[in-house]
Design goal:
It is built from 13 helices and 26 strands. By secondary structure, it is of the alpha+beta class. The longest helix is centred in the first third of the chain and has 28 residues.
Length: 474
Amino acid sequence: MQHNIFLCLSFILAMSVLDLRQNAQAAERQLPGSMAQIKMSFAPLVKKAAPAVVNIYSQKVVKNRRVARLFDDPFFQRFFGDRFGFGYEEPEQRVQNSLGSGVIIDASGLIVTNHHVIAGADQITVVLTDRREFAATLIGSDERTDLAVLKIKAGNDKLPVLILGDSDSLEVGDLVLAIGNPFGVGQTVTNGIVSAVARTKLGDSGPTYFIQTDAAINPGNSGGALVALDGRLIGINTAIFSQSGGSHGIGFAIPANMVRAVVSGLRKGGRLVRPWFGAWGQAMTSDIAASLGLDRPQGIIVSKVYENSPAAQAGIKEGDVIIEINGRPVNDPQALDYRVATLELGKQSIVKIRRKKKKISFRFNVLPPPEIPKRNVTELKGNHPLSGAVIANMSPALADELDLVGFKPGVMIMRMRRRSSASQFFQPGDMILGVNNRKIGRVEELKRVMSIPVREWRIDLLRNNKAMNLVIGR
């Protein structure tokens, strides 16, 4: 009897739990209960953010060589091309227009956009969403990060502003809005999610480190805003992967933390000085990780530490594996460049390494690159293949000034006189490593070696990171 009563009570309890679950599920599926719930949208966020996103119109004057009508005829062009210089008239000038977007980040009129939007511009005009127009002044531009800073004077007029957020707080899956002027149709807002937060290896120079989003980004969006749901600017839209020129849901934005660092540097003097770490290396591979007894590839294996650099002073050695900067993972050289580039000069930061299966943390000073040795810019003269070349001692400071990734000590060709001996064999950017089996490390060494008359010159050089050997006779 007691057993039957127990079974009945158990059955009643189970049915009650089942009813509660069904009611909960029904509540989850129920229709919106109010107009407020029906009207849920991004509109309040757009009203807050969109006014700070501006259109940027840039103009530059370009010269075209104009062909006389007779030689412009397709018949003559087919057979003679451009060979007859007398068929050309004086170059004519024309105005080339380009369109992009920008973001007001300071009430004083400071605007950030892409470098490629205003590159070479003679005139820049900024148009706000309320149709106010301003002539803009270029404060500074950094081709390496593709960022530029403009300034407009609005007088007593109040300007809308977007506050820079912390792009390191982003997570894959976060909702974002992209605001810009695609194809010149007018300000447009699209939404999507963060598809990835640390995309590297998308360009030939660094620090290439992007936020990837599936929010539609198209031509004209360049320099526009990627906005988080808290209303802060977390990226500057800059590029897309596309075979047609339109959006395929793979767009890239420069992280706000990089924007903050570049703006801070450019607004101080018009030229960006990046922090310098002084250690280089290669990404850990699966094979290397296995040989070191690691369960997975992680970090950068240090192959070079520059003497007296912040890395050397901190205690970093060749063979160490850098795994973090200030608690953020570093898994390839581009990520290391990015993490260092976003540090604040004059402060201290923490680098974590792996050394023989032990994890060690070091503090290092965030310093600008030094000009050691002095560049000693010199034009070579004389009866030799390098006559007419302007050379300089490479230093971390000069490498930074020339936007070179990494640093290689030696003597670089900066430029050359037209029609000089050097212009026949060399290019600006060539690094001279040796002459006639003598290693070259300084300008004075190269100058001295080239002054010795010989019948044949054997010159070792580095061009686009490739070693070359030139044999040049008299």
